[in-house]
Design a protein that fits this description.
There is one protein chain. The chain is mainly α. 70% of the residues lie in helices and 0% in strands. It contains six helices and no strands. The chain has helices at 19-51, 72-77, 81-140, 145-154, 157-166, 169-177. The longest helix has 60 residues, at 81-140. The chain has a domain at 109-182. Residues 61-92 are annotated as: Disordered. This is SisA. Residues 83-92 have a biased composition (Basic and acidic residues).
Length: 182
């Protein structure tokens, strides 16, 4: 039974073009893919931040001893230590909040990339199955094995298989385990 082909792989092949045009097209396509990936990543991170809002617990203010009020003239000329302390506390709160947001964004980006890597590994497995099935059908129809090997070399199938063998499901699992914990 033939395997269904993904929608992205049903595009018609472009007509023969000069090498410069092909390189330019490849560069343009890569740029579009990078932009699409960055946009998808940002949408994912934004959605995850909405679904998992960052909560910064507010620390209890220190108990202040009762002091005699200071004269108004001294308070207006130099900021009081209480005012400086309040500004520092506010700055620390903002810093803690921003650090938590950065950490959450990194965690969500890592999760997104791991999911994309897992999906890509699945697509590669699918393509290996399609290639194996096509080779089997060609051989069954009497296609010459030497021609098949030459096609594999011309299209870099052997190199791709060696690279894919290096990137196994274990590698994907290892990346997912490295994901920062909540």
């Amino acid at each position: 039974m033939p395997l269904p082909m993904p929608m992205a792989m049903t595009k018609p092949a472009p007509l023969a073009m000069p090498v410069e045009d092909i390189n330019q097209q490849v560069e343009l396509e890569l740029q579009q893919l990078k932009t699409h990936f960055a946009n998808a990543e940002q949408r994912y991170v934004d959605q995850m931040l909405i679904e998992n809002p960052i909560v910064v617990e507010r620390r209890a203010p220190p108990a202040a001893p009762n002091k005699a009020p200071q004269p108004a003239a001294a308070a207006s000329s130099v900021p009081s230590s209480r005012e400086v302390q309040r500004q520092r506390a506010e700055s620390c709160r903002k810093s803690r909040y921003n650090n938590k947001i950065k950490k959450a964004k990194l965690r969500f980006r890592h999760k997104f990339v791991c999911n994309q890597l897992t999906e890509s590994a699945g697509v590669l497995d699918y393509m290996r199955d399609v290639i194996a099935q096509a080779e089997t059908q060609l051989l069954a129809r009497g296609f010459n094995r030497a021609n098949l090997e030459r096609m594999r070399q011309n299209f870099g199938i052997d190199q791709a298989a060696a690279t894919a063998a290096a990137m196994t499901a274990m590698d994907v699992m290892e990346l997912q385990q490295q994901q920062p914990q909540h």
